[in-house]
Design goal:
Blueprint: H1 3-14, E1 18-23, E2 27-32, E3 41-45, E4 49-50, H2 58-66, H3 70-77, H4 96-108, E5 113-114, E6 122-123, E7 129-134, E8 139-144, E9 155-156, H5 166-173, H6 189-209, H7 216-235, H8 241-257, H9 260-277, H10 283-310, H11 314-331, H12 334-341, H13 352-370
Parallel strand pairs: 6-9
Antiparallel strand pairs: 1-2, 3-8, 4-5, 7-8
Length: about 375
């Protein structure tokens, strides 16, 4: 193969599959320069600017900007700014230049971070990319959650609004200074009916989970709501990580019902979807794999536990408890292990079901902690 052809192939391989261009009614944006397969990582990028976690203050943003070198500042100021972005009250001590910095940040932040390329991706309530912060590699990733054709605009969702009403989505998006006009926000009768059904399901789920002691029928309804919600999210074109959360909740409630095989199926479904949305190197995916191993172990050990309990064989029970203790030390994070050590949750005196329950609760918490925070008005 000629050397010139090798160089050309290498450059095409490492070149990003998108280009920046002007989008009618949106300003600048990114469009696909070639077909992109579902599950592909379109972009992985270190942040140009990041603000410490916690309440975001104007002074924190200005301080982060001042720490950039001249090239970083130039790249930051080259980003678009929405003149209608909601900044809240701005201190009069800020100069016009610093106010411009705040406008640029409010327009382009992705989970308290600014990316030189990722921040140029526009919003859609039916996105074709999923954005996540990957702590393992210290970069923000943007992965295709749908097959994308050449010249299609690349979009992400700035909000977690798959189960929200149109009014709530539009009210939240005003923080960025624009009104969404995607297919989900069109004033069609079918869209509003589907939206209302989703909201009613979530309201019913919250009612079932709060307060009273749960019966088997209640848990079955919870599982049904979660699985139906996951299907609806796919149909309406929002197969984001919220769909993974629906599967994880279905696994958690199936576990409470004693449907161990169903719980395993839903966790596998969640991990398959997470693989598409965030990739196999993301902390949440890795932790989910560990939980799946723990679940399979629990299923394998359950028969042995039942036999030992029926025979009241204390030696076998003690051996199982020690074995589970080793599994927990390897699989679970400190928060879950501490929870298990509390007297009311002493799973070693009962059975592996409690260990698995707290593992699933923990996985949901891990997912929420690793997700990028929502937009916060300055």
């Amino acid at each position: 193969m000629p050397p010139s052809l090798i160089v050309k192939l290498k450059s095409e391989h490492f070149q990003h599959p998108f280009r920046q261009t002007s989008i009618p009614g949106k300003g600048q944006g990114l469009v696909a320069s070639r077909d992109i397969a579902r599950g592909s990582r379109v972009l992985s990028e270190a942040p140009l600017l990041s603000v410490p976690s916690g309440a975001v203050k104007s002074c924190d943003i200005v301080d982060a900007y001042m720490k950039l070198d001249q090239f970083g500042r130039a790249a930051f100021l080259a980003l678009c700014r929405a003149p209608n972005a909601d900044l809240g009250e701005i201190s009069p001590k800020f100069s016009p230049e610093m106010k411009h910095v705040l406008f640029v940040y409010a327009t382009n932040e992705r989970g308290r971070r600014i990316f030189s390329q990722g921040s140029r991706i526009n919003h859609s309530c039916v996105p074709n990319l999923e954005h996540a912060w990957n702590a393992n590699i210290g970069q923000g990733t943007f992965q295709a959650i749908k097959d994308i054709r050449k010249e299609d605009e690349l979009t992400i969702s700035y909000i977690q609004g798959a189960n929200w009403t149109k009014e709530k989505r539009q009210r939240t998006l005003k923080l960025w200074g624009f009104t969404c006009s995607c297919s989900l926000c069109q004033d069609s009768i079918d869209a509003r009916i589907s939206e209302r059904i989703l909201v009613e399901r979530q309201t019913k789920l919250q009612y079932l989970l709060i307060g009273h002691r749960k019966s088997s029928a209640d848990w079955k309804q919870c599982v049904e709501i979660c699985t139906t919600t996951a299907s609806s999210q796919t149909v309406q074109g929002t197969p984001t990580r919220e769909r993974s959360l629906s599967f994880l909740n279905a696994a958690k409630y199936s576990w409470r019902l004693g449907r161990w095989d169903h719980a395993e199926y839903y966790i596998k479904s969640a991990l398959q979807h997470e693989k598409i949305c965030i990739g196999t190197d993301h902390p949440d995916y890795i932790y989910g794999q560990r939980i799946l191993i723990l679940l399979k172990t629990a299923i394998a050990e359950q028969d042995a536990y039942k036999s030992a309990k029926e025979l009241r064989n204390s030696d076998d029970l003690r051996e199982l408890a020690e074995r589970w203790d080793q599994y927990a030390k390897w699989q679970l994070n400190p928060q879950t292990k501490q929870k298990m050590r509390e007297p009311e949750h002493d799973w070693r005196l009962h059975n592996p079901r409690k260990a698995m329950w707290w593992a699933l609760v923990d996985l949901n918490r891990e997912k929420r902690e690793h997700e990028d925070p929502q937009h916060v008005a300055i």
